């Protein structure tokens, strides 16, 4: 019977065959321990010379890292293994021998590992991160479907730049200028007027010159947009959503969190509601903490966000940023023109901003004025303006960056480990 490792528990005391690769091995004169991986998981194969005979034992001792093989044996319960099972090996059939695998058990530097990303993905740690990423994606679809949202896919090739023009990837669309999408938001606003509550999930592109542990050039964003939802209600959806994905990972990825050495007590606390602090109070707080350089009207840098986040054991919303430092589409606060009804959600433990969101301007005149102030082309935004012409309603939405969220929940330091093939400043290979 051919099985995958994740199903081992269903085959205790039965003889099975697993197609897998050799992750690592240890051996002595009489016994060899093969760490086998098959994509679904990892299992230890135990090869006892006295049981298998000279030939198969010699094969087990000489098998090299990443050699592919069919291993046949009996599944047995094993309390010591993190997985709970091991394979008492009876036979090994080599499929393809792997020689000189570059990623050895010794420590390698990040540039070497990034050059070998196509192979590095096979490691136990990268496997765990990818499984957590997958669980977050699964839980995202589950959450929004249960809440009555409709998935809508905005275009990737666009003629407009919602988040400002400085970070655009420009390309040609036959004779016209086009850009790779920085955010699907504007299209999602149109979709919300058609379907009420919508969400998108897709790749977005920013030609950012930032070389930090939080920045990718190509990253995936989840962008919900909701008609008739105002600023405060928007925050409630966000805290429910983030709590639900963290709790799903805790429930379904114990093994992976354990592999990564994640402190799960910190994740258990991630339950709605989350604290809120205004931009004004955040500035005051930073001054008290000795950040003298920052003034009202400045955007926060990573050290500022980290200092604020350290006061809480949950993600924290920073609300009501100055209008001047936010995009053109945000609704001003009713009694204070100089701030907008927006919030950034800052993750704990120094992972920085994972969500940016706001209530959107729904007044036609005000939006026109903003488009002009920001020097945007009225032609390119004509369709967007028309959403305010035909039955405009208050509406809100947000964007959650998948990779920063994966980094935080997994507890990995750098976003480059949270996406299969990261696009970074100066890296397009592999
Ligand atoms: O705050 P941002 O720029 O917001 C928007 O794009 C809105 N239009 C979203 C909306 O309201 N529909 O980006 C949203 C999130 C950030 O909070 C961050 O998590 C992530 O996207 N993000 C990045 N992640 C990795 N690398 C980058 N270069 C990122 N830029 C933004
Ligand atoms: Mg932002």
UniProtKB/TrEMBL annotation:
Homology family: Belongs to the class-II aminoacyl-tRNA synthetase family.
The molecule here is called Asparagine--tRNA ligase
GO CC aspect terms: cytoplasm
Q: List locations, semicolon-separated.
A: Cytoplasm
Query: CDD domains annotated for this entry?
Result: AsnRS_cyto_like_N, AsxRS_core
Organism, as annotated: Peribacillus simplex
Domain of life (superkingdom): Bacteria
Residue stretches in coiled coil: none
Quaternary structure, per UniProt, is: Homodimer.
Recorded GO molecular functions are:
asparagine-tRNA ligase activity; ATP binding; catalytic activity, acting on a protein; nucleic acid binding; transferase activity
What NCBIfam families has UniProt attached to this entry? Answer: asnS, PRK03932.1, PRK05159.1
Positions of the Aminoacyl-transfer RNA synthetases class-II family profile domain: 130-430
**InterPro entries the record matches:** Aa-tRNA-synt_II, aa-tRNA-synth_II, aa-tRNA-synth_II/BPL/LPL, Asn-tRNA-ligase, Asp/Asn-tRNA-synth_IIb, NA-bd_OB-fold, NA-bd_OB_tRNA
Q: Which gene encodes it?
A: asnC
List the keywords (alphabetical): Aminoacyl-tRNA synthetase, ATP-binding, Cytoplasm, Ligase, Nucleotide-binding, Protein biosynthesis
Q: What is the lineage of its organism?
A: Bacteria, Bacillati, Bacillota, Bacilli, Bacillales
GO BP field: asparaginyl-tRNA aminoacylation
Indicate the enzyme's highest-level EC class. Answer: ligase
């Amino acid at each position: 019977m051919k099985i995958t490792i994740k199903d081992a528990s269903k085959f205790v005391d039965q003889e099975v065959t697993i197609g897998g690769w050799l992750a690592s091995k240890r051996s002595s004169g009489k016994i060899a321990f093969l760490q086998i991986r098959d994509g679904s998981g990892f299992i230890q194969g135990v090869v006892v010379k006295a049981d298998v005979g000279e030939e198969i034992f010699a094969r087990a001792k000489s098998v090299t890292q990443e050699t592919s093989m069919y291993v046949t044996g009996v599944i047995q319960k094993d309390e010591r293994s993190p997985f709970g099972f091991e394979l008492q090996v009876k036979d090994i059939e080599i499929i393809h021998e792997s020689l000189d695998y570059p990623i050895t058990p010794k420590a390698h530097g990040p540039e070497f590992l990034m050059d070998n990303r196509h192979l590095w993905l096979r490691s136990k740690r990268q496997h765990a991160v990818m499984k957590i990423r997958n669980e977050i994606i699964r839980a995202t679809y589950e959450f929004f479907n249960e809440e009555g949202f409709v998935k809508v896919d905005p275009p990737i090739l666009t003629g407009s730049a919602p988040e400002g023009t400085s970070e655009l990837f420009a390309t040609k669309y036959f004779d016209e200028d086009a850009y790779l999408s920085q955010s699907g938001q504007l299209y999602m606003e149109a979709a919300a007027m058609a379907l009420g509550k919508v969400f998108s999930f897709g790749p977005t592109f920013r030609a950012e010159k930032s070389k930090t542990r939080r920045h990718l050039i190509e990253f995936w964003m989840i962008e919900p947009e909701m008609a008739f939802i105002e600023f405060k209600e928007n925050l409630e959806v966000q805290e429910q959503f983030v709590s639900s994905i963290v709790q799903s990972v805790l429930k379904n990825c114990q093994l992976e969190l354990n592999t990564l050495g994640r402190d799960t007590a910190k994740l258990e606390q991630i339950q709605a509601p989350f604290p809120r602090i205004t931009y004004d109070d955040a500035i005051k707080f930073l001054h008290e903490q000795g950040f003298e350089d920052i003034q009202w009207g400045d955007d926060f840098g990573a050290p500022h966000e980290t200092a604020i986040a350290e006061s809480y054991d949950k993600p924290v919303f920073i609300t009501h940023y100055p209008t001047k430092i936010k995009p053109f589409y945000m609704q001003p606060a009713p009694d204070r023109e100089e701030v907008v009804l927006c919030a950034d959600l800052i993750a704990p433990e120094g992972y920085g901003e994972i969500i940016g969101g706001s209530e959107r301007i729904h007044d036609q005149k005000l939006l026109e004025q903003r488009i002009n102030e920001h020097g945007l082309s009225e032609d390119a935004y004509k369709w967007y303006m028309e959403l305010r012409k035909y039955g405009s309603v208050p509406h809100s939405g947000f964007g959650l960056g998948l990779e920063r969220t994966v980094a935080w929940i997994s507890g990995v330091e750098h976003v480059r480990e949270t996406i299969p093939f990261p696009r970074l400043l100066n890296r397009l290979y592999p």
